[in-house]
């Protein structure tokens, strides 16, 4: 999927930004960089220094004259924009875009362009209207324009998260097991049964008065949910509750 995503930079004017984009892409596993009518050299001391070891992306970047040339073979083009335009257009958040990617990339010829604008003036309305949808990175409303490489970083990160989600069931990408776990985690239903049992037991030992709950059960829920108990631990806790109830039954009734 990541190899099907092309980062398209339009009219970039600072070599350092192109270098920063290369670095952001290589960090996230993206390889396809396209420059449309760049207003500066792509390979300079500055860009190589900002690429910090990702300069092969600079050397491999394709240069195009127009946006149409750069996205011609793409099946989806999404324009990144800091501003909302007068003409409403399908808008995506970075996460919504990422959620769409695995589906989009299923067709054999899929290629997705993420299009970024000029440092000084962004994308023109004409360029934005070449895109299927626009993506806006949520920001402080009073300061919404990210540095170009930072904007690429945010979207590239979301692409990587979507790709990782897709590979979650493959053994190599599976989350490492918790080092201290020796049983499966309790399910939501296991916990609900436990909470019911806990409340009954706390009533039986007269610790809890449902008429004066003082948020006790809510606080206990928060505690147990935070602990992420395992099934086996849940069984131990339920065993303790049963023994507690039994002991309460044998207890001398109060005078
Ligand atoms: N001054 C320009 C913004 C330039 S920032 C303007 O007002 O439009 C360079 C590019 O980074 C933008 O064209 C856009 O592609 C991307 N970018 C910056 N901030 C963004 C944001 N909040 N959401 C989406 N893309 C953003």
What does this structure look like?
The chain has 255 residues and is an alpha/beta fold. The protein folds into two domains: 2-175, 3-Layer(aba) Sandwich (Alpha/beta knot), CATH 3.40.1280; 186-249, Orthogonal Bundle (Helicase, Ruva Protein, domain 3). Helix content is 45%, strand content 11%. The protein has helices at 15-28, 45-51, 55-60, 67-71, 94-104, 125-128, 148-166, 188-204, 216-227, 231-250; strands at residues 5-10, 32-36, 62-64, 76-80, 91-92, 112-116, 133-135. The protein has a seven-stranded parallel β-sheet. α1 packs parallel to α2 (45-51), α1 (15-28) packs parallel to α7 and α5 crosses α7. It starts with a strand and ends in a 5-residue tail after the last helix. The chain binds S-adenosyl-L-homocysteine.
Q: What is the CATH domain class of the largest domain? A: Alpha Beta
State the helical fraction. 40-55%
Structural class: alpha/beta
What characteristic shape results from the CA principal axes?
elongated
How do the helices and strands line up, and which of them pair or pack?
Blueprint: E1 5-10, H1 15-28, E2 32-36, H2 45-51, H3 55-60, E3 62-64, H4 67-71, E4 76-80, E5 91-92, H5 94-104, E6 112-116, H6 125-128, E7 133-135, H7 148-166, H8 188-204, H9 216-227, H10 231-250
Parallel strand pairs: 1-2, 1-6, 2-3, 4-6, 4-7, 5-7
């Amino acid at each position: 999927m990541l190899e099907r995503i092309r980062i398209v930079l339009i009219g970039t004017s600072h070599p350092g930004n192109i270098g920063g984009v290369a670095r952001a892409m290589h960090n996230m596993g993206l390889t396809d960089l396209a420059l449309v009518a760049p207003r500066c050299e792509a390979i300079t001391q500055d860009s190589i220094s900002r690429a910090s070891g990702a300069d092969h992306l600079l050397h491999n970047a394709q240069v195009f004259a127009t946006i149409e040339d750069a996205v011609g073979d793409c099946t989806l083009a999404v324009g990144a924009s800091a501003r909302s335009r007068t003409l409403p257009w399908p808008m995506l958040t970075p996460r919504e875009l990422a959620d769409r990617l695995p589906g989009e990339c299923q067709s054999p010829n899929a290629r997705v362009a993420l299009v970024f604008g000029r440092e000084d003036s962004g994308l023109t309305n004409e360029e934005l209207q070449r895109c299927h949808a626009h993506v806006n990175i949520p920001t402080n409303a009073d300061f919404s324009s990210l540095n170009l490489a930072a904007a690429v970083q945010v979207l590239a990160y979301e692409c990587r998260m979507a790709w990782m989600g897709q590979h979650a069931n493959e053994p190599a990408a599976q989350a490492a097991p918790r080092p201290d776990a020796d049983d499966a985690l309790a399910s939501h239903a296991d916990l609900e049964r436990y909470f019911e049992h806990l409340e009954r037991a706390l009533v039986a030992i007269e610790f809890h008065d449902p008429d004066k709950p003082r948020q006790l059960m809510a606080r206990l829920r928060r505690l147990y949910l935070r602990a992420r108990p395992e099934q086996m631990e849940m069984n131990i806790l339920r065993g303790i509750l049963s023994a507690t109830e039994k002991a309460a039954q044998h207890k001398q009734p109060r005078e």
